[in-house]
């Protein structure tokens, strides 16, 4: 009952471009569309690794550093990329362009660039920023982290203010251009990035002489500047959202508020994120895997030295502004930590905090970790600082260390991981999910093309892809109305009456609803994080199973819908008819314009009455037309005690006193 502009709502311009390219190129006879898609994405990952290679080379001055970064990326691929097992993720399109942008920024921040080189580098930064923003819906949050990096370095005089201004402008321009291409997507207009960058530029104009004075004077000005930028950012962002009535990203801020302990929440959307492992803290075993390749040890070693150098430079820049105006003094200071090195240092620190707090974002950090660690091991400045601190400084020793250590690590990586990688490349795997395939085949062959399906977000995405049927909701969560709709559809797993569920589903034009045992009887999450628990809490109902409940939660007035509907009792058969089932899925067709009274009459009238001719047949005998499961019978075993993946046996049903058949011969399949 709603039409969605996919180019506005989703980041799929890359698929549109690829489809045009496939039709234009003369490859249709030799390559199927799916392989063209896969090979394109894998080729993009090669560009990703190449960008990491170039960034490390630019920072260290030797190609050996880039080679080590590439090797570390591949050997740590479990923690650096998800492309090998989830190919079409938006981040797999976006992160290669993000890596190109970082490489271009690294080169741009070099001092004394030629005007032509500077212009070409700015063009490369703009194009990569634009493509990164176009291909991932979370672009604004990643670039906000980048803007914070630039703000920190600019405030501490670690990079030229003019270059920081150029980068602020490119970020906003790229994002606004994407906004236009996405038909003025409201989430982009209300992004924190645009508000923050505008606030930084405004505050800089208002606060004159920000970088003059003694250490304490400058420190006070810096804190005042930070406070002004923060307040102005929140003010502008609230004004924009109120003017445009934006609610697209409010679930993200609810999630962040609850995640960092600023109050518990019963909000369904926020809890849906909080309970997902991908949005939890980074698991500790990640560091064990990174240590096996020596990456984590090298990273900590380089990070410690560069942080100490950065603190020394920051203190130097803030302590005596008058002396910093001297070219000689300034040059002497920046040799310790060059602007491009300072940028990558703050970048890796901020994205490290992001990864530690949210596991899904670790791929932004671990790939840059490869770059930063390899740069440090091959950097003459890092070895110079270390050897000088232990009084062993010698130019020859620096040369030996910066080449011998990376070569030894490369030999170790080849010896330990090369055989395993060759074995993995020789493996052939295939998709195996017969229940889902059976469901999709049934939908294609037994339902109208215009049928409307309701169910879980993930399953409906597959239904759309495999059958082309119309959906009530889908996994794109960055829209308030779709979040409300998803919560309403998910009441099929809550403790709601069949009348309420039927009314909700029909309000979205639903013809069929798909129930999944893996959700209804979920055991993957702990109590309080199962989907049914989140729905109970949001509805003010007590959760199932042993454990505590908040005192204000109440007992529900109805049993759980997804369990009770499988008993085929009259209150449910009046609204829903089961049309398909296997071990995993149950599909029910919604009945229209039937009252419970009419349905009960139909059920009773379909069975023989207790007339003498019926009784004469003897107990347990039925006419031929009545050999079907009796809808008044109660199963011996409640479905709630079955495991989600347990196939239900066909068991005799207990006779209910209300059954008009007066027979116990019927068989009833629980699931």
Automatic annotation (TrEMBL):
<dbReference type="InterPro" id="IPR018732">
    <property type="entry name" value="Dpy-19/Dpy-19-like"/>
</dbReference>
<keyword id="KW-1133">Transmembrane helix</keyword>
<feature type="transmembrane region" description="Helical">
    <location>
        <begin position="365"/>
        <end position="387"/>
    </location>
</feature>
<feature type="transmembrane region" description="Helical">
    <location>
        <begin position="116"/>
        <end position="136"/>
    </location>
</feature>
<feature type="transmembrane region" description="Helical">
    <location>
        <begin position="175"/>
        <end position="201"/>
    </location>
</feature>
<keyword id="KW-0328">Glycosyltransferase</keyword>
<comment type="similarity">
    <text>Belongs to the dpy-19 family.</text>
</comment>
<feature type="transmembrane region" description="Helical">
    <location>
        <begin position="148"/>
        <end position="169"/>
    </location>
</feature>
<dbReference type="GO" id="GO:0000030">
    <property type="term" value="F:mannosyltransferase activity"/>
</dbReference>
<feature type="transmembrane region" description="Helical">
    <location>
        <begin position="294"/>
        <end position="315"/>
    </location>
</feature>
<keyword id="KW-0812">Transmembrane</keyword>
<dbReference type="GO" id="GO:0005637">
    <property type="term" value="C:nuclear inner membrane"/>
</dbReference>
<feature type="region of interest" description="Disordered">
    <location>
        <begin position="596"/>
        <end position="627"/>
    </location>
</feature>
<dbReference type="Pfam" id="PF10034">
    <property type="entry name" value="Dpy19"/>
</dbReference>
<protein>
    <submittedName>
        <fullName>Probable C-mannosyltransferase DPY19L3 isoform X5</fullName>
    </submittedName>
</protein>
<keyword id="KW-0808">Transferase</keyword>
<feature type="transmembrane region" description="Helical">
    <location>
        <begin position="51"/>
        <end position="73"/>
    </location>
</feature>
<feature type="transmembrane region" description="Helical">
    <location>
        <begin position="93"/>
        <end position="110"/>
    </location>
</feature>
<keyword id="KW-0472">Membrane</keyword>
<feature type="transmembrane region" description="Helical">
    <location>
        <begin position="222"/>
        <end position="240"/>
    </location>
</feature>
<feature type="transmembrane region" description="Helical">
    <location>
        <begin position="342"/>
        <end position="359"/>
    </location>
</feature>
<feature type="transmembrane region" description="Helical">
    <location>
        <begin position="399"/>
        <end position="418"/>
    </location>
</feature>
């Amino acid at each position: 009952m709603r039409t969605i502009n996919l180019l506005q709502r989703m980041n799929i311009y890359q698929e549109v471009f690829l489809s045009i390219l496939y039709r234009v190129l003369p490859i249709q006879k030799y390559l199927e569309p799916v392989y063209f898609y896969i090979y394109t994405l894998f080729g993009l990952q090669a560009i990703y690794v190449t960008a990491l290679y170039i960034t490390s080379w630019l920072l260290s001055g030797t190609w050996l550093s880039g080679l080590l970064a590439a090797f570390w990326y591949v050997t740590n691929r479990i923690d650096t990329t998800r492309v090998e097992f989830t190919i079409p993720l938006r981040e797999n399109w976006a992160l290669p362009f993000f890596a190109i942008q970082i490489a271009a920024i690294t080169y741009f921040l070099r001092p004394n660039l030629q005007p032509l080189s500077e212009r070409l580098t700015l063009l490369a930064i703009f194009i990569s920023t634009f493509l990164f923003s176009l291909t991932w819906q979370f672009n604004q949050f990643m670039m906000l982290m980048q803007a914070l990096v630039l703000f920190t370095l600019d405030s501490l005089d670690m990079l030229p203010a003019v270059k920081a201004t150029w980068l602020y402008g490119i970020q906003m321009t790229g994002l606004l251009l994407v906004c236009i291409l996405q038909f003025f997507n409201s989430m982009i207009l209300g992004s924190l990035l645009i508000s923050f960058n505008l606030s930084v530029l405004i505050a800089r104009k208002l606060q004159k002489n920000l970088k003059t004075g003694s250490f304490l004077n400058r420190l006070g000005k810096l804190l005042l500047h930070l406070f002004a930028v923060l307040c102005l950012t929140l003010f502008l962002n609230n004004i924009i959202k109120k003017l445009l009535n934006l609610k697209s990203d409010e679930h993200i801020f609810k999630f962040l508020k609850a995640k960092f302990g600023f109050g518990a929440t019963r909000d369904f959307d926020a809890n849906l994120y909080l309970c997902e492992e991908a949005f939890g803290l980074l698991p500790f075993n990640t560091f064990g895997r990174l240590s096996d390749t020596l990456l984590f040890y090298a990273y900590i070693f380089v990070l410690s030295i560069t942080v100490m150098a950065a603190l020394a430079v920051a203190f130097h820049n803030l302590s005596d502004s008058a002396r910093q105006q001297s070219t000689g003094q300034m040059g002497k200071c920046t040799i310790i930590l060059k602007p491009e090195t300072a940028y990558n240092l703050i970048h890796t620190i901020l994205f490290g905090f992001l990864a530690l707090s949210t596991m899904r974002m670790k791929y932004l950090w671990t790939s840059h970790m490869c770059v930063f660690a390899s740069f440090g091991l091959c950097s003459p400045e890092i070895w110079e600082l270390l050897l000088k601190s232990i009084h062993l400084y010698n130019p020859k020793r620096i040369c030996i260390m910066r080449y011998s250590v990376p070569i030894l690590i490369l030999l170790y990586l080849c010896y330990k991981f090369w055989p395993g990688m060759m074995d993995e490349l020789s493996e052939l795997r295939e998709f195996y999910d017969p229940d889902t395939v059976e469901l999709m085949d049934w939908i294609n062959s037994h339902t109208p093309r215009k049928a409307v399906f309701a169910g879980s977000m993930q399953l409906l995405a597959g239904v759309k892809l495999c059958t082309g049927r119309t959906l009530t909701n889908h996994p794109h969560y960055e829209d308030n109305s779709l979040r409300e709709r998803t919560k309403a559809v998910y009441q099929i797993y809550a403790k709601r009456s069949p009348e309420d569920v039927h009314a909700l589903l029909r309000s979205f034009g639903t013809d069929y609803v798909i129930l999944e045992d893996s959700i209804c009887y979920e055991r993957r999450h702990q109590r309080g994080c199962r989907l049914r628990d989140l729905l109970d809490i949001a509805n003010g109902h007590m959760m199932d199973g042993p454990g505590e409940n908040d005192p204000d939660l109440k007992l529900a007035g109805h049993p759980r819908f997804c369990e009770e509907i499988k008993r085929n009792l009259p209150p449910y058969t009046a609204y829903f008819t089961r049309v398909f089932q296997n071990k995993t899925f149950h599909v029910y067709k919604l009945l229209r314009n039937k009252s419970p009274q009419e349905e009960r009459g139909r059920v009773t009238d379909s069975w023989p009455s207790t007339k003498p001719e019926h009784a004469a047949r003897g107990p347990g005998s039925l006419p031929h037309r009545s050999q079907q499961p009796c809808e008044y019978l109660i199963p011996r075993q409640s479905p709630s005690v079955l495991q989600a993946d347990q196939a239900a046996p066909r068991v005799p049903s207990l006779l209910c006193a209300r059954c008009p058949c007066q027979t116990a011969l019927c068989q009833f399949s629980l699931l």
